[in-house]
Amino acid sequence: MNVSDSELVETLLIDQGFQKVDNPEKSDILFVNTCSIREHAEDKVHSLLGRYNLLKRKKPSMIIGVLGCMAQSLKNDILENKPYVDIVLGPDSYRRLPEILKRHEKDEGSLVDTQLSKYEVYDDLFPRRKDGVNAWVTIMRGCDKFCTFCIVPFTRGRERSRSVEGIVNEVKKAISNGFSEITLLGQNVNSYNYNDKKFPELLDAVAKVEGVKRIRYTSPHPQDINEELLDIMAKHDNICNYIHLPLQAGSNRILKRMNRTYTKEKFIELAEKIRTFLPGVGISTDIIVGFPGETEQEFNETLEVMRKVKFDSAFTFKYSMRKGTKAIEYNDQLEEDEKQNRLTKVIELQKFNTEQRNQSYVNRVVDVLIEKKSKRNETKWAGRTDSNKWVIFNKLDFNINDIVPVLITKSKGITLYGEITKKVKVA
After folding, report:
1. I want to staple 155 with a disulfide (CB 3.0 to 4.6 A). Which of 72, 298, 379, 389 is the partner?
2. Which residue in 78, 85, 81, 125 sits closest to 104, CA to CA?
3. Whole-number Cα distances in Å, 186 to 85, 126, 137, 147
């Protein structure tokens, strides 16, 4: 989401005549687009702002701005403890950025706008995108789920969706600018609802846009995945055979305490249904360990769900207390050592599951979208299968954005290795 928001901000500034520079020391204005999902993300922002303060001491005219979720959730802390920050803007206030910059020329002190909107979706703003492979297209903003561990409803407001027309137009612009893959973004992307048009209808419309080679979406909520959505995914070859399915925890008591609105039994049933509708699908997940009150037995239930579902990959986290959330009020917080111990076990199990899932690709031919040069060997390409597996393979006479058939010869860790089988690209 922050990548998409940063593109919006960049577009607004370029339209006002500003130029982007790569070196902070050469900047007249420095904006930090922030995330408050976890404490670690906030710590990185505090560190970065400290470094930018040193630059401002050398160049007092420099403007420093904090944008996004931390601006929304920690504005008082920023204003009280970081007087060198000139601008604080929440995620619904980006349109005001040019106006705020003009006001800053006259006004002393920090300028703040963190008002959340019931309507702002930036539907008529189309990001200026550089050449690339994947375009991130935001289809909705905010969240109505109110998971007890999550600060998003308080930093990004309630759910509201962009128009189908606006989204399709942005997709067309991205394709005309050379992008091959579209990722549809939303906090709960399958809660999309614009004038009674739901997410399956939107996905169907985007899949029909000429030139779209691949479509992904993130993040869905298990509660809102239905057969209509799976039918649309099976119908279109350019919709990737991949679903991110956040579990969070495997204990029904903890899931209820998290306000996740499903049981582990329903989750396992859904995963099985997805694999029935979409053979060969890649399924990833999110897992939080050490949620307040989680017992050893309840943690073991999470491991058991992992063993049953066998996720292809997982984003794993220790529970992080967030001010303003319900979970911070619970008085049975776990010790950090115990959280870390459980996280280590989850990572080890997921590593095993990933290796098992990846091994099944060996000796198979899969279509891979070339995305970049391999970091470790520039004579090789790196790209992903539609099931979201990274593959390293020989270059031959192909280019970034080509889809090519690759014979998988080896699996190592989270990565597959292979050789292009034909001198003809798939797309």
Report:
1. 72
2. 85
3. 29, 16, 9, 16
The encoded tokens of residue 288 equal 């939080």
Question: 48, 78, 113 — which closes off a domain?
Answer: 113
| Per-state percent for the chain, helix, strand, coil, to nearest 5 | 40, 20, 40
Domain count along the chain: 3
What is the CATH number for 368? 2.40.50.140
Same structural domain for residues 350 and 268? Answer: yes
Alpha-carbon gap, residue 149 to 328, rounded angstroms: 8
Query: How far is residue 387's CA from residue 232's CA, in Å, rounded to a whole number?
Result: 16
Q: Do 284 and 310 contact (CB within 8 A), yes or no?
A: no
Tell me whether residue 190 is in a domain. Answer: yes
**Tokens linked to 360:** 């099944």
| 3-class secondary-structure state, position 63 | strand
Q: Tell whether 182 and 147 lie within a shared domain.
A: yes
Per-residue pLDDT of 377-410, as tens digits, reads 989 999 999 999 999 999 988 999 999 999 999 9
Indicate whether 84 and 221 sit together in one domain: no
What is the value of pTM for the model shown?
Answer: 0.93
Q: Which domain holds residue 86?
A: 1-113
Q: Are residues 176 and 314 in the same domain?
A: yes
- Structure tokens that stand for 113 in this block: 């706008």
Tell me, yes or no, whether 313 and 168 share the same domain. Answer: yes
Q: Is 102 strand, coil or helix?
A: helix
Residues 225 and 271 in one domain: yes
pLDDT for res 394: 95
C-alpha–C-alpha distance, residues 300 and 204, integer Å: 39
| Phi, psi for residue 120 in degrees, rounded to 5 | -65, 120
Query: How far, in Å, are 150, 227, 291, 331, 337 from residue 147 at the CA level?
Result: 5, 24, 12, 17, 24
Q: What is the overall mean pLDDT for the chain?
A: 95
pLDDT digits (tens, 9 = 90+) for 145-160: 999 999 999 999 999 9
**Chain segment 5-59, per-residue pLDDT in tens:** 999 999 999 999 999 998 999 999 999 999 877 778 888 999 999 999 999 999 9
Separation CA 223–CA 188 (nearest Å): 10
Residue type, 164: V
Same domain, 352 and 370: no
Q: Are residues 186 and 301 in the same domain?
A: yes
Whether the CB-CB separation of 319 and 279 falls below 8 Å is answered with no
Q: Are 125 and 105 in contact (CB under 8 A)?
A: no
Tokens coding 328? 């911070």
